[in-house]
């Protein structure tokens, strides 16, 4: 099976996804840090609409089944692994409740015949949501509550033989250690060198790098970023200029449309806003191009 995703917006050919089921239905929202609008049954039906949009893009979905393993956050398949043109990297989750998800990804890559280049060990943590390819040879990682210096150093060592540079950028604490703020919480690539950002929370050197690399930045409005717990910004390009976003954030949608994007939306208060993860987080594209 072909693989490799060192870009963030090229057409998704293959993607790992997990439909929430038994594990989400059993999840205690207080334990998992799910918000007031959490409702597992509604989240599951909202997910179905999202999965229809991904399937309609033509992507092949590789399913990571929820057989009641208790891993409620495992629907956010973006986080336990990433996949280069040379093979996959198995990450190590910073959120302790999510550690067990990595084995599921390992099994899927093995079944798909995708080689594994390396696996994070010991205390090193990096989550996929902190990883942004700004070009095919440059992977930026947000150092924060979920990804630490040791984990970033391990990813750097795993990818160095392939000529891939790994850069680290410090994230703010924002809503605290229990909440989820990834580097991808403040940027969503929309096309080659075009990204939706929430500039006030971008690490300043990362903002400067994007400018140096020639990016055009579309700014998401503060009121919608706050009202959505940041989920207005978390949009998934299934191909350049064609994105899936959470419904209800019209100014953000209009800003993307003004930049030339077609925006498909789905209702996601019980799924994304409550569980702190959006359309990008719900997918691990492992072949784009
Ligand atoms: N890439 C992402 O931003 N993933 C969202 C993960 C949300 C999940 N509830 C978590 O706390 O890890």
Automatic annotation (TrEMBL):
Keywords: Hydrolase. SUPFAM superfamilies: Pentein. The keyword Hydrolase applies. It catalyses: L-arginine + H2O = L-citrulline + NH4(+). GO terms for molecular function: arginine deiminase activity. Its EC number is 3.5.3.6. This is arginine deiminase. It comes from Martelella mediterranea.
């Amino acid at each position: 099976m072909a693989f490799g995703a060192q870009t963030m917006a090229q057409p998704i050919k293959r993607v790992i996804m997990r439909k929430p089921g038994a594990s989400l239905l059993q999840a205690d929202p207080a334990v998992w840090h799910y918000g007031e609008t959490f409702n597992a049954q509604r989240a599951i039906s909202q997910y179905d609409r999202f999965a229809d949009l991904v399937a309609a893009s033509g992507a092949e979905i590789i399913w990571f089944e929820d057989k009641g393993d208790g891993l409620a956050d495992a629907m956010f398949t973006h986080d336990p692994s990433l996949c280069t043109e040379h093979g996959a990297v198995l990450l190590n989750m910073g959120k302790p409740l999510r550690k067990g998800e990595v084995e599921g990804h390992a099994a899927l890559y093995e079944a798909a015949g995708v080689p594994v280049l390396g696996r994070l060990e010991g205390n090193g943590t990096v989550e996929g949501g902190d990883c942004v390819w700004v070009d095919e040879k440059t992977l930026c990682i947000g150092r924060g509550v979920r990804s630490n210096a040791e984990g970033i150093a391990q990813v750097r060592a795993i990818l160095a033989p392939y000529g891939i540079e790994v850069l680290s950028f410090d994230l703010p604490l924002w809503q605290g250690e229990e909440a989820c703020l990834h580097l991808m919480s403040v940027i969503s690539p929309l096309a080659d060198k075009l990204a939706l950002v929430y500039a006030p929370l971008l690490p300043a050197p990362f903002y400067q790098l994007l400018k140096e690399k020639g990016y055009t930045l579309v700014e998401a409005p503060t009121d919608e970023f706050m009202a959505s717990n940041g989920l207005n910004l978390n949009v998934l390009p299934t191909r350049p200029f064609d994105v899936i976003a959470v419904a209800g954030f019209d100014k953000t949608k209009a800003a993307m449309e003004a930049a030339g994007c077609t925006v498909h939306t789905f209702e996601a208060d019980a799924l994304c806003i409550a569980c702190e993860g959006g359309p990008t987080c719900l997918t691990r594209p492992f072949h784009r191009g």
